[in-house]
Amino acid sequence: MNGVSLAEVLADLRRRFAAAGLNDPAMDARHLLMGLLGLSMTDLVVGGERPVCKEDGARIEAAALRRLAREPVHRILGAREFYGLTLALSAATLEPRPDTEILVESALGFLRPIAARQQDVRILDLGTGTGAIALALLKECENIRATATDISAEALATAARNAESNGLSDRLITLKSDWFTAVDGSFDMIVSNPPYISKAVIEGLEPEVRLYDPMAALDGGEDGLDAYRAIASNAGRFLRPHGHVALEIGYDQKQAVSDIFDQAGFKLAQAASDHGGNDRVLIFNFE
């Protein structure tokens, strides 16, 4: 690519990504170049005549081949923005997605009043992955402390690195635990984006998800509800009086998950939809 302009490289990436049938070739091409070269959108638009050196060209080509193999752009870049945080990714973590920001925003509506009336606010993030949910909540409320659990040591190491890089490590404890097995103490809120995809559906997922997201973070069992049963059956023992459980759910799981928690003594306090209008977040009160 030596001597080729940035605009020509961008056009070539768009063409190749479109020919491969990628869902949004223009956006993928822009984000890949911006991330690899440290450019803003303005840089990309007004700097089209900028020449791309041989070394950068080689890096771009290597990244393009990975994207053509259906590896997601942000996994190629190694990080993603989430609720104002920059979060490193690893093979053991889901890539945090915009819909999960709705869970954060909904949870904050319940946590902020608690934080306003008491100093010691504690949350438990089950299946933390990158730490996205817990860290976003810590960022927004200074008197919250979080325990973040995962069954993967690699995921916990990623969450710890993200806490350090975002200046939040003094308020985050990571804990290797299969749901509640190693958890101790009580919490004002339990949050989770658990695996909720039915086992039979997984083979039909887009390659970006099926090939690159960790299976343990996807597979919710035969009906996709195993994690919700595990959380509902134990959460009450770890909640402070009038505590809450905030969950991300699949688009068609609102009634089923509500029934599971109702049978465990919880009351639905709020439901929220994602950017596409699908059911995505449920928050329960424990009485």
Number of domains as seen in the coordinates: 2
- Order of the strands making up the biggest sheet: 7-6-5-8-9-11-10
Q: Which structural category fits the helices and strands?
A: alpha/beta
Low-confidence stretches: none
What portion of the residues fall into strands of 2 or more residues? 15-25%
CATH architecture annotation of the largest domain: 3-Layer(aba) Sandwich
The CATH topology annotation of the largest domain reads as: Rossmann fold
The strand count comes to 11
By CATH, the superfamily of the largest domain comes out as Vaccinia Virus protein VP39
Order of SSEs: EHHHEHHEEHEHEHEEHHEHEE
For this entry, what is the oligomeric state of its chains? Answer: single chain
Approximate helicity band: 40-55%
DSSP helix count?
A: 11
Shape: globular
Question: How many strands, which pairing sense, and closed or not: the largest β-sheet?
Answer: 7 strands, mixed
Mean pLDDT: 96
> Cα-atom Rg, whole angstroms?
21 Å
What is the CATH class designation of the largest domain? Alpha Beta
Distance between the termini: 64 Å
Explain what the structure shows:
The model has no long low-confidence stretch (mean pLDDT 96). Helix content is 41%, strand content 22%. The chain is globular. It folds into 2 domains: 4-77, Ubiquitin-associated (UBA) domain (Helicase, Ruva Protein, domain 3), CATH 1.10.8; 80-286, Vaccinia Virus protein VP39 (Rossmann fold, 3-Layer(aba) Sandwich), CATH 3.40.50.150. The N and C termini lie far apart (64 Å). The strands form 3 sheets. A 7-stranded mixed beta sheet has the order 7-6-5-8-9-11-10, sandwiched between helices. It has a two-stranded antiparallel sheet with strand order 1-2. It has a two-stranded antiparallel ribbon with strand order 3-4. The chain is built from 11 helices and 11 strands.
